[in-house]
Amino acid sequence: MSLAMRTFSSFIFDLDGVLYLGSTPIRGAAEALCELGRRNCRIFFLTNNATKTRGQYRKKLAAMGIDAKKKHIYTSAYGTAKYLVQEKIRKVFVVGEAGLKREIRGAGVRICTGEEADAVVVGLDRKFDYKKLAHAASAIRNGALFIATNTDATLPLENGFAPGAGAMVEAAATASGKRPEVIIGKPQTFLIEDILDENDFQKREVAFVGDRLDTDMLASNKLGIFSFCVLTGSTDKHSASRARGLYKPGKIIKSVEEVLKYAKEATD
Q1: Residue 178 forms part of a structural domain
Q2: What is the pLDDT of residue 1?
Q3: Residue 14 catalytic?
Q4: What's the CA gap between 73 and 58, in Å, rounded?
Q5: Which of 16, 125, 152, 211 is catalytic?
Q6: Is the peptide bond before 187 cis (omega within 30 degrees of 0)?
Q7: 133 found inside a domain
Q8: pTM surpassing 0.85?
Q9: Which residue from 189, 202, 152 is spatially nearest to 42, judged by alpha carbons?
Q10: Is residue 65 a part of any domain in this protein?
Q11: By residue range, what is the domain housing residue 94?
Q12: Are residues 100 and 30 in the same domain?
């Protein structure tokens, strides 16, 4: 079926670079999602950014005019906490911000010093320093499981790009001599599969809307989900149009507003 004939009743939206840049909403994003809601489309959110809890993301989206239920927001912080519980890991050293730590503690996992840790979790940390790196590397060398919330090299902001969690992950890998044994966020499919399984989605009805070729497009294509690549974040038109294989978007669009062309009126 050609794209011109395809419509979708369910959408999964990335956040950074798709709905906002830093604290600035992408123009037209809130109105587009409001219209999707009016059409009874199912809307979910998925971000690799582990700096906030799901509740904090709900409040941030609400402040931008986007109504989101907490249970419809999936993050690499939430995914990490869930993974720790599933694997019965009870003591972790965390390189990351308050949102990640709150999700982990909320799952009943204890955050400890590196010496006690069964695992080291590394995410975006804007107060990352040598001491944190030394503790993380030492614990990993001593056998702690090395978990990365995600490996995004950059984070799109209003005025350009800031270092992403991948910068911290690479530092820990270099200092410890070991690569991450577990990566929670995209391009791994763990979180998207959670959304599909927990909400009874049919893949043919779902589209993923993201801005990164190496995470959003790759993860979507691995699962056979149609992908839209917006040009408001990490990827420009030239790079998107040259992408091949699993990195190739299903459709390149300027912004989230264009998704409305492919959204059908869904029934309750």
Answers
A1: yes
A2: 41
A3: yes
A4: 8
A5: 16
A6: yes
A7: yes
A8: yes
A9: 202
A10: no
A11: 88-183
A12: no
Rounded to whole angstroms, how far apart are CA atoms 162 and 167?
10
Q: Cα–chain-centroid distance for residue 227? A: 15
Give the Cα-Cα-Cα angle 83, 186, 72 (nearest 5 degrees).
70
Which regions of the chain are under pLDDT 50?
1-2
Report d(CA 230, CA 212) in Å as an integer: 9
CA distances from 200 to 10, 24, 236 (A): 11, 33, 33
d(CA 125, CA 142): 23
pLDDT in tens, 170-180: 999 999 999 99
User: DSSP strand E in 171-218: where?
Assistant: 182-183, 206-210
Type and span of the H or E element at 12: strand 10-13
The H helix count followed by the E strand count for the chain is 9, 15
Residue indicated by tokens 């699962």: 223
Tokens of 117: 């840790």
8 A C-beta contact, residue 150 and residue 184? yes
CA distance 51 to 29: 22
Helix axes 98-106, 76-86, angle to 10 degrees: 30
Q: Quick check: is 129 catalytic?
A: no
Strands 73-75 and 24-25: unpaired
The CA distance from 205 to 8, in Å, is 5
From the candidates 14, 125, 152, 211, give the one annotated as an active-site residue.
14
Q: How many separate domains does the chain show?
A: 2
Give me the amino acid identity at 160. G
Tens digits of per-residue pLDDT, 183-204? 999 999 999 999 999 998 889 9
Measure Cα distances from 154 to 36, 161, 215 in Å: 29, 6, 12
